[in-house]
Amino acid sequence: MNDSRSADTSPQQLADEVTQAMWPRDRASQGLGIQILSVKPGYAHLTMTVRPDMVNGHQICHGGFIFTLADSSFAYACNSYNANTVASGCSIDYLAPAGEGEVLEAEAIERSLAGRTGVYDITVRIRGGKTVALFRGKSYRIQGEVIAGLQAER
After folding, report:
1. b/e per residue, 16-30, with b = 16+ CB within 10 A?
2. What pLDDT score does 149 carry?
3. Confidence of residue 153 (pLDDT cuts 50, 70, 90)
4. Which terminus of the chain is more exposed, N or C, with fewer CB under 10 A?
5. φ, ψ of residue 37 in degrees (nearest 5)
């Protein structure tokens, strides 16, 4: 095989390749300053610093930005197997405020994966501190791959 990928690529190597393929196309996360700390099969850990343009009239981080950080973490976790996967539903509970300048961390953990559906729990915390939100995402695998043709090469 002339390709750098081989049939014995580990699940972690696959998750890394998928992350590298998704990131350049993920302009929403990039635009919010989200950074990827770690992606593993069924897992993702992302961060985002609360900017001045992310605070609402109460001078706390707007819930939509917290949701987006959690949703991005969910996306990287559930796509880590290279099967195109989208959200079929999600919910969030806001537990505490986050302020301007604070760094938020979203950690997504796969709880169930059966057939085409999965369930992921995402915890959003202020770095080194309190939990800000709990997000649950339900995923659904659609046709195709993040890296087209990769499964056929293996």
Report:
1. bbbbebbeeeeeebe
2. 78
3. very low
4. N
5. -90, -40
Cα 82 to Cα 20, 38, 129: the distances in Å are: 11, 16, 33
Domain ranges for the chain: 11-153
Give the predicted TM-score (pTM) of the model: 0.92
Residue 111, token pair as written in the block: 């709880």
Angstrom distance (rounded) from CA 111 to CA 103: 25
Exposure b/e, 70-101, CB count within 10 A at least 16 = b: bbbbbbbbbbbbbbebeeeebebebeebbeee
Give the mean pLDDT of 122-133.
96
The predicted pLDDT at position 137 comes to: 98
Sign of CA dihedral 88, 40, 100, 123: positive
In the block, residue with structure tokens 């610093």: 49
CATH code of 11-153, in short, is 3.10.129.10
Whether 4 shows a pLDDT value over 60: the answer reads: no
